[in-house]
Amino acid sequence: MVTKQVRDELPENADLRRADSLAREIFSDVANKWALLIIEALGEGTLRFSELRNEVEGVSHKMLTQNLRMLERNGLVDRKVHPTVPPKVEYTLTEPGRALRATVDLICGWTNQYLGHIETARDRFDA
Amino acid sequence: MVTKQVRDELPENADLRRADSLAREIFSDVANKWALLIIEALGEGTLRFSELRNEVEGVSHKMLTQNLRMLERNGLVDRKVHPTVPPKVEYTLTEPGRALRATVDLICGWTNQYLGHIETARDRFDA
DNA sequence: CTGAATCCGCGGGGATACTG
DNA sequence: CAGTATCCCCGCGGATTCAG
Q: What mean pLDDT value characterizes chain B?
């Protein structure tokens, strides 16, 4: 991911720009609340759709499927359908997914670490 | 941050629930595209409003101010106003902000590392 | 230059119903 | 149970304007 766009206009860097725009796309996919919460919820284990729905507080049916599709498309989660009745679908993080989860864990850790800090900052600001 | 809500109804855990809901709030604030891109753009340095606007590709005037206010409120960025004319405002990451940035760096690293992986996963899925 | 405020369109996202 | 489709509304977010 490149944040500065100094060398944007050079045609010989077309492939670089392509990779960069792809990176931005992936970043936009991944840097959203529900995606990260789902990844965090999956953890090391395997969860069914309905279990995820319970685990990820406040997520709607629609948002859950939507984000699961997206994560599956990007190869971050593995979707395993058991051809039973009633159907049973299990979701598991792939290797890239687990790698990302490690960083999500860090964000969660960060959140807890600075909870108090942030709360007082808010109080100060709101005054 | 607690992902499971097993012990939600016990009244003696009111403070835990409060901290948890606060954590979720912070997580929702922080886990969004623009906030993370702004944090990443600020890096170790100091940038003016207009510089940030250039640095963070595609961000609108409104989104930038909005997210900067939010980050300032949570104590992640420091806002320094120079009483000159025309006005000059500089934004810098605070210590908590820099700590978070470290994890954002990891996400960026992750993105680049799995770029190819993800691209092929997409191709496979779209077929 | 920075930023608040207003207007407004479009799409995110909830609720619901229906298939397999 | 899991997933898709439809409806529909609210609010995100862009464009623009005005102020300091």
A: 90
Radius of gyration, CA atoms only, chain B: 19
Contacts of residue A22 in chain B, CB cutoff 8 Å?
Answer: 115, 118-119
Tokens found for residue B69: 């206010």
Q: Are the beta carbons of B27 and A33 separated by less than 8 Å?
A: yes
Average pLDDT over residues B93-121: 96
How many interchain CB pairs under 8 A, A with B?
Answer: 135
Query: Is B61 within 7 A of strand D by CB distance?
Result: yes
* Interval B67-95 mean pLDDT: 96
Q: How confident is the model at residue A16 (pLDDT cuts 50, 70, 90)?
A: confident
B32/D14 CA-to-C1' distance in Å: 18
Any idea where the domains of chain B sit in the sequence? 1-31, 33-126
pLDDT at A10: 58
How would you classify residue A45: left for phi > 0, otherwise alpha for psi between -120 and 50, otherwise beta?
beta
**CA–CA separation, A109 and B47 (whole Å):** 27
Q: Which of B3, B121, B125 sits opposite A41 (nearest CB)?
A: B3
Return the closest-CA partner of residue A55 out of A34, A69, A72, A71.
A34
A33-126 is classed CATH 1.10.10.10 = yes
pTM of the model as a whole? 0.91
Nearest Cα residue in chain B from A27 = B111
